[in-house]
């Protein structure tokens, strides 16, 4: 079974940084349920394919890939299958999301580009977006939502994905270090997620990028279809 973070991690978020003991308890509960019991095959042992099918049936969207697939590979593949394009804007994550996407398979076909800005360099976003950041703070839900819309509009992409973070060690406005807000603008609607981490700035940025990609992955799987 896959434990996302170490036992010493005490971060709190809704994706991949749950406390280890909580995650382990959830997995053990699933393993003990009838849904996740690996039924033996007729010859006395389940094949790897049969066991994988049972695990996938039980865990569903919590599994994003196999072997060497990265979540960025999976997201770009889903975008390409659906004929969709993506753009990003990042504030506080240092371009981590753009870097991960740039290395993904199929990125050239779906990733239109991205902007990476600092809390004091928001002029490139336009006056309207800069005003929202100045009023609500650079690491806020409102900032993330504005950045996501800006991404799609600026690059003429079907989906805009944004991170507005305070990675630390200093706070960003009223947001304490480790604050992360993520937003996805797509089909005239927005989805959002928030996280609070207690770890290094570099790790906060990495987790923010992974969570942003997972937000988009979930949206693509739940809605399906094209733009």
Q: What does this entry look like structurally?
A:
This protein is α/β, with parallel strands linked by helices and 227 residues long. Helix content is 42%, strand content 16%. The protein has a 5-stranded mixed β-sheet. A hairpin with a 2-residue loop joins strand 4 and strand 5.
SSE topology:
Blueprint: H1 20-32, H2 48-59, H3 71-81, E1 86-91, H4 96-102, H5 107-110, E2 111-117, H6 127-136, H7 141-155, E3 159-166, E4 179-186, E5 189-196, H8 201-223
Parallel strand pairs: 1-2, 1-3
Antiparallel strand pairs: 3-4, 4-5
Instruction: Report the biggest beta sheet as strand number plus sense, adding barrel if it closes.
Output: 5 strands, mixed
What is the tally of beta strands? 5
* Oligomer description: single chain
One letter per element, helices H and strands E, the order comes to HHHEHHEHHEEEH
Strand content: 15-25%
Structural classification: alpha/beta
What coarse outline follows from CA principal-axis ratios?
Answer: globular
Strand numbers in spatial order across the main sheet: 2-1-3-4-5
Number of helices: 8
Q: What proportion of the residues is helical, as a percent range?
A: 40-55%
Gyration radius over CA: 19 Å
Overall mean pLDDT? 82
Low-confidence stretches: 1-16
How far the N terminus sits from the C terminus, by CA atoms, comes to 35 Å
Question: Top keywords for this entry?
Answer:
5 strands; alpha/beta; 16% strand; 5-stranded mixed beta sheet; 227 residues
């Amino acid at each position: 079974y896959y434990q996302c973070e170490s036992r010493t991690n005490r971060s709190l978020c809704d994706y991949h940084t749950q406390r280890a003991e909580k995650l382990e308890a959830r997995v053990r509960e699933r393993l003990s349920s009838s849904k996740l019991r690996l039924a033996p095959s007729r010859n006395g042992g389940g094949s790897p394919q049969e066991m994988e099918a049972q695990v996938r049936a039980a865990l569903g969207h919590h599994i994003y890939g196999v072997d060497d697939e990265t979540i960025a590979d999976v997201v770009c593949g889903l975008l390409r299958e659906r004929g969709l394009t993506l753009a990003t804007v990042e504030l506080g994550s240092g371009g981590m999301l753009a870097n991960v996407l740039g290395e993904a398979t199929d990125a050239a076909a779906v990733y239109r580009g991205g902007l990476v800005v600092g809390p004091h360099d928001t002029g490139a976003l336009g006056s309207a977006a800069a005003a929202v950041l100045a009023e609500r703070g650079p690491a806020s839900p409102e900032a993330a939502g504005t950045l996501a819309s800006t991404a799609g509009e600026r690059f003429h992409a079907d989906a805009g994905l944004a991170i507005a973070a305070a990675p630390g060690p200093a706070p960003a406005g009223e947001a304490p270090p480790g604050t992360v807000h993520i937003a996805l603008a797509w089909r005239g609607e927005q989805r959002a997620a928030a996280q609070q981490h207690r770890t290094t700035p570099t790790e906060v940025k990495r987790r923010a990028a992974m969570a942003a990609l997972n937000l988009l992955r979930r949206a693509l799987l739940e809605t399906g279809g094209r733009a």
